[in-house]
Specification:
- With 365 residues, the chain is α+β, with helices and mostly antiparallel strands.
- Helices cover 25% and strands 27% of the residues.
- It has nine helices and 15 strands.
- Strands 5, 6, 7, 8, 9, 10, 13, 14 and 15 form a nine-stranded mixed sheet that branches. Strands 2-3-1-4 form a four-stranded antiparallel sheet, covered by helices on one side.
- α1 runs antiparallel to α2.
- The longest helix is centred in the N-terminal third of the chain and has 20 residues.
- The radius of gyration is 20 Å and the shape is globular.
- The N and C termini lie far apart (72 Å).
- The mean pLDDT is 94.
- Bound molecules: fructose -6-phosphate and magnesium ion (2 copies).
- The site of fructose -6-phosphate has 11 residues, from loops.
């Protein structure tokens, strides 16, 4: 049996430039230096450092499996080193996603977002890593459903015998800390009842019916870790493609829609998710609108051949245009719902304080 490799994507916002709009190149250089050192020591097979908006993204391949303490520690130390640079430059919100004082075995629950998968590399292994800024992990629910359960998006579900049996979705209830596995196509109505509620239920992984792992997403919610609003979670997602899995084009297709997600200004607004080329991933208008980039790689014995900037394609121009129109339209609602999130979504912001302050002034009507 071929040896398994692990792909770990670990991200954090450790300082914005300018404000929360983008990242300073010194942070990227520092992260590359740290990971290069780890590669020289033999801990990593390969790595790629990139960013989406103000989020620093560490993409690493290795043989240590998921939740490996040494890999998580490496990511943590890298974020700490980058935080030092961010502090030196007085970048905005230096270290904002590092919610713990010191590393304690697993980076999950400490602030950074994590998507990892361990698998046997196929004869050819095309993968896409999606990285988003100014939104939360529920943003992946709709595109994952379309990729793996909707034949109007993915004709392979109908045409390719290897996919015809469908896929299994692992869905996490981030409030109750429990998960459920639901099967498509048999249980899609049950599945949609949950994943349509993107704030609470998030798709964490997708498997083919024969057990092959096809996708893994980060589901960390900073506010639930910190107990208060400390920025949005800006999620990542890994999807394996082709040869009995959705094709690269089927995996990208849901993002031509520009669906509405939560996030944007102060993590408190609904806005359209705009698919952009790497160089355009600098959300500045009203701190947004939310962005997603798609980095395509061919794995070669664990080496990351790439990335290809997959949204750098004029075929996504209409989606970009449409999301700008939707952004204009939503902005005109100002502080009114549904542009602003509902009250229950603001429970980790200053809303509870305001309610407390005004509580005594409410009288029976
Ligand atoms: C959204 C985000 C920004 C900030 C906003 C206020 O995820 O990061 O929209 O919430 O710029 O930031 P502070 O409170 O740091 O001034
Ligand atoms: Mg930030
Ligand atoms: Mg961010």
């Amino acid at each position: 049996m071929a040896a398994k490799i692990t792909l770990s994507v670990i991200k954090a916002d450790v300082g914005g430039y300018v404000g929360h709009s983008s990242i300073h190149s010194d942070l990227l250089d520092t992260a590359k230096e740290k990971l290069s050192h780890a590669q020289e020591k033999g801990m990593l097979i390969d790595y790629h450092v990139t960013r989406c908006g103000d989020d620093l993204e560490l993409i690493m391949t290795h043989k240590h499996g998921v939740d490996a303490e040494n890999i998580h520690n490496l990511a943590w130390n890298t974020f700490v080193a980058c935080t030092e640079i961010a502090k030196d430059l007085k970048l905005y919100g230096a270290g904002q996603d590092l919610l713990a004082d010191a590393f304690s075995g697993n980076i999950k629950g400490m602030g950074p977002g994590v998507a990892e998968m361990e698998f046997e590399e196929r004869k050819s292994e095309p993968i896409i890593i999606f990285m988003a800024d100014k939104t939360s992990p529920g943003a992946w629910n709709l595109p994952l459903y379309k990729m793996f359960a909707d034949p109007f998006n993915t004709p392979g579900l109908v045409i390719d015998p290897a996919m015809h049996d469908g896929f299994v979705f692992e869905v996490v209830d981030v409030y109750e800390h429990k998960k459920i596995t639901l099967s498509s196509p048999e249980e899609i109505y049950d599945l949609l009842m949950f994943i349509g509620a993107m704030r609470r239920f998030m798709i964490k992984a997708v498997y083919r019916k024969d057990g092959m792992l096809a996708a893994a997403a980060s589901t960390q919610k900073l506010s639930l870790i910190a107990g208060k609003y400390v920025g949005k979670d800006d999620p990542v997602l890994i999807v394996r493609c082709q040869a009995g899995l959705p094709a690269v084009g089927e995996v990208l297709e849901p993002f031509a829609f520009g669906h509405i997600v939560e996030g944007w200004m102060r993590g408190s607004h609904h806005g359209p998710l705009m698919p952009v080329a790497f160089y355009e991933a600098n959300p500045s208008r009203f701190d947004g609108p939310p962005r997603v980039i798609a980095a395509g790689f061919q794995l070669c014995n664990g080496k990351l051949i790439g990335p290809r900037d997959l949204f750098d394609d004029p075929a996504f121009d209409e989606a970009r245009k449409r999301t700008n129109v939707i952004a204009d339209y939503l902005r005109q609602h100002g502080p009114f719902e549904p542009h602003r999130l509902g009250l229950e979504d603001l429970e980790y912001t200053t809303m509870p304080q305001l309610m407390k302050k005004l509580d005594s002034r409410f009288i029976p009507e």
